[in-house]
Amino acid sequence: MARAIWSGYITFGLVSVPVGMYSATQEHEIDFHQFQKGTSDRIRYKRVNERTGREVPYDKIVKGHDVGSGEYVIVEPEELEDIAPGKSRTLEIDTFVDLDEIDPMHFQKSYYLGPEDAENASSYALLRDALAKTNRAGIAKFVMRGKEYLATIRADGKVLVLETMFFADEIRDPDEELGGLPRKSATGKQLSMAVDLIEAMSGEWKPAAYKDTYTERVKELVKAKHAGKEVVYSEEEPQATNPSDLIAALRASVESARKARTATKTRAKKTTAKKSTAKKTAAKKTTAKKTTAKKTAKKQKRAA
């Protein structure tokens, strides 16, 4: 069993539920070390005192905040812990909101919350089932690793899931960051065809259908180079569609998407028909075996 990266209590009203927090996701990662080009010499990083040039042990390093003019305020780890003794052990829910009201942009990272012991499993199940029944998420704040997080706590099947979230002032204004966003709304035939294309390309959300092809290519590249081979990919970079060609591109895209959907449905029907035929054949064989077994048993009785 995995080790909890944080443990504490979910509190709502006068109820406290002891929980442990566990990572719910893991990213595809291929480890690379750094080398000096043309050599097999590793590049390594050290924590060095810029005045003495000497390496400093990790336990001798403290944090300092720049307050301007080259002056720093040094803060000890113990001081950071002392200012949030309760929050570092508490997920205090102050309100429950409808899940559909939360903009996905606020979500940051997912964690599983598990009951800390069997004795308190009933209170864990109570909160989980109540959240599922109401389609609500608890909004809470807590401190972990020297940082305060905003979080939602929601039900997902048998487990409670915590999503760390960005605070409102951490989300950048698109107008300030991007500028030049189109103010005029799309209308007419172009909009109608774009809607048709979206409808033609719509389907069920099947997360297992999506694979990390880039990571697979990196693995192939490493494997090929290790074997002394060369891997060449020749994909063309997409070009912006000319506004004058937009209608034609949309029309062709809609036709292509509809053909692809028809082909998918046809394959699905054939697969279903094959399975149905296989079941009927298996059922007939089973019935035939039972009939033969009964006839054999009757013959044996008569012979006796």
UniProtKB/TrEMBL annotation:
<dbReference type="InterPro" id="IPR009187">
    <property type="entry name" value="Prok_Ku"/>
</dbReference>
<feature type="compositionally biased region" description="Basic residues">
    <location>
        <begin position="259"/>
        <end position="304"/>
    </location>
</feature>
<dbReference type="InterPro" id="IPR016194">
    <property type="entry name" value="SPOC-like_C_dom_sf"/>
</dbReference>
<keyword id="KW-0234">DNA repair</keyword>
<dbReference type="Pfam" id="PF02735">
    <property type="entry name" value="Ku"/>
</dbReference>
<dbReference type="GO" id="GO:0006310">
    <property type="term" value="P:DNA recombination"/>
</dbReference>
<dbReference type="GO" id="GO:0006303">
    <property type="term" value="P:double-strand break repair via nonhomologous end joining"/>
</dbReference>
<keyword id="KW-0238">DNA-binding</keyword>
<protein>
    <recommendedName>
        <fullName>Non-homologous end joining protein Ku</fullName>
    </recommendedName>
</protein>
<comment type="subunit">
    <text>Homodimer. Interacts with LigD.</text>
</comment>
<dbReference type="GO" id="GO:0003690">
    <property type="term" value="F:double-stranded DNA binding"/>
</dbReference>
<feature type="domain" description="Ku">
    <location>
        <begin position="53"/>
        <end position="183"/>
    </location>
</feature>
<comment type="function">
    <text>With LigD forms a non-homologous end joining (NHEJ) DNA repair enzyme, which repairs dsDNA breaks with reduced fidelity. Binds linear dsDNA with 5'- and 3'- overhangs but not closed circular dsDNA nor ssDNA. Recruits and stimulates the ligase activity of LigD.</text>
</comment>
<keyword id="KW-0227">DNA damage</keyword>
<feature type="region of interest" description="Disordered">
    <location>
        <begin position="257"/>
        <end position="304"/>
    </location>
</feature>
<comment type="similarity">
    <text>Belongs to the prokaryotic Ku family.</text>
</comment>
<keyword id="KW-0233">DNA recombination</keyword>
<dbReference type="InterPro" id="IPR006164">
    <property type="entry name" value="DNA_bd_Ku70/Ku80"/>
</dbReference>
